[in-house]
Every structure is written in C-alpha cells, then in structure tokens.
Amino acid sequence: MKWLSLTTLALFAPSHALIRFPCAQLVVDRLDPLVNPGLIPSPHLHQIVGGNSFNATMDPSKDMPGESTCTTCQFSEDFSNYWTAVLYFKARNGTYKRVPQMANSGFDGVKGGMTVYYMQDGLYNFQQTSKVTAFKPGFRMYIGDVNARSKEDIARFRQLTYTCLQDINTRDPQILDFPKEPCPYGIMTALRFPTCWDGKNLDSADHMSHMAYPESGTFETGGPCPASHPVRMGQLFYEVNWDTRQFNNKEDWPEDGSQPFVWSFGDSTGYGNHGDYVFGWKGDALQRALDQPCYINCPTLKTQNVQAMNSCSKDRVVTEDNIDDWVETLPGGMVAGM
C-alpha cells in the first residue's frame, strides 16, 4: 500500500491538493472528551492542540468557534481540537520522562504541538474532478485502538505509522511499531483518518463506524467510497514530531536491548497509537479552503503568526506530579507493557 511521506506531498504541493499547517501546544492534560466525556481525570495523558474551548465534556451542541477566544492553529478560523496520547521514555532504572514535541519542517518557532493536513483531492488521481466535503458542526471521530498490541490488531487501520527521522526532512521508511534503534532526529508519528462518511451521523458509539476507508486503494489514489459511506470527505491526518534525541544513549535503554519508548497508556509496542478529532472550523471556512487552490498560504483563510499561536493556551485541569519530571509511574498509574 502506498503511504504518503512529506517528501512526496511536497512534490505535489503546486497542484494545491492539500492544506498543511502547524498547531502549537494548547495543553497536556488527562482529559478525553471524546472517549471519556466528563471524566476527570481520563485514564491517560493527552497532548491537545486547537481552540481553547477544549474541556472535559465538549458538548456537541455547543458552538466551538463561539466558545473559544483563541486557537493554537495557524489558520485563526480553525477552533477544532486535535489530540493524541503522549510519548514517554522508560529508562533502564525504570523511571519515566515525557518526550517533548518539536516543530515540523518549515514551522520554526512553533511550540510543540503537531502538523495538521486536510487533503483536498487524490494526489495520484489526476482525472479526479469531484470536490471533497468539509466536516460539519458537531462532527467528531477517532482512529486507532488503545488496546492494540500487534500488527494484526491494527489491520483495519490502514495508515498509522512511525518514521525514524534521520534529519528534519527525512520521512521514509514508515513502519507500524516503534523504531528499534535510536533515531538521529526523533520519531514522527502519522495518523491518517478514514475519508468516507455515511452522510448522516456526526458521531457514532465507537466514534469510528460513521466513517470508512475507500472500498479499494486509498484516498490519495482516488479509491471509491463504499455504498454504506458514500460521501467523500477531505482526508485529515496528523504528524507529530517527538524529540527523542536526548534519549539516544543506548546505555540508558533496557539491558535486553529492547526499545525504551512507551505511550502514556502503557503501550510499549507502538501499535496502540491513536488520535481524536472534534470539528470546530468557523462558518464555511474549511469548505472554502477545500474548494480553492490552497497549500500553506490559503487566500480564503485568515492566518495568525507564530507568536499568536504560541500564546494561546489553557491551564491543566488535572493536578498531579509535574509531568515534565522523571516519575516512577506514568500519569494515572499506568504501567509499561499494559
């Protein structure tokens, strides 16, 4: 299966087939309003970007753009929230340290966070003429399986990958589990969401069933949507750059030579990689962007500078041990190997 790297995407940028933008860190907190709405604290730690109306409940009837006063994303009309679990390093002595995030290629100065993409059209389907549909107010979705611990467990998720970065621009090869060797420039995680909507439901019980992957091929190759999910949406995906460089000394790694990274929910295989999305674009801003030629500079969208992105933040709701210190256990008492 063909997975797109940033290098490939850059080659096609002149065709305006995608929107790519950074979102700085909003907060790192133990909240998950999609999977565990109203639960304070949620079982594991997340890193969140986007609008500052993010909260433990995220009532879908609320107007996210109206509730937010700022966003950490470059496009200032995007008050959506995007989040993933948090990566930790487990030292040989059994203690844990949170792995910081770093800005992606081309986004110097952005405070952590992630890079967000909305694919406007299939890159390899040059005859594609149909427009893609933007998500609607109240829409939300999830990708991945927090309990996955093998390649077979994630077979239904076509594009959840890791890249062991050799430098800021290297993006291949992409693998499905944690890299087994130190990565010179960190580890990138990529999460590509399904692109076919059932046309009716803004959410579903598992936050996934209202969406599906193309019947064959991929979104990039213009694969057709199944009859059960006929509406072709723009493809959303995240890239998160984890700055693992300070942890590259193998003398600090487990004595048996196994890789030392673990997700905040205890997964040391990497197969449990997952992400959440709650739509919150203002008005028809996203549809305008998807309808018009656009890449990093989008003439139909309002933008803000790095200083404004970095200055938007939220206080943590869940108070616990300093999440940036070395700790004996993962937040929530999670244990590596769970």
Automatic annotation (TrEMBL):
Listed Pfam families: DUF1996 (PF09362)
Keyword Signal assigned: yes
Domain DUF1996 stretches: 32-281
InterPro entries, per database record: DUF1996
Signal sequence interval, chain numbering: 1-17
Highest taxon in the source lineage: Eukaryota
Protein name: DUF1996 domain-containing protein
Organism: Daldinia eschscholtzii
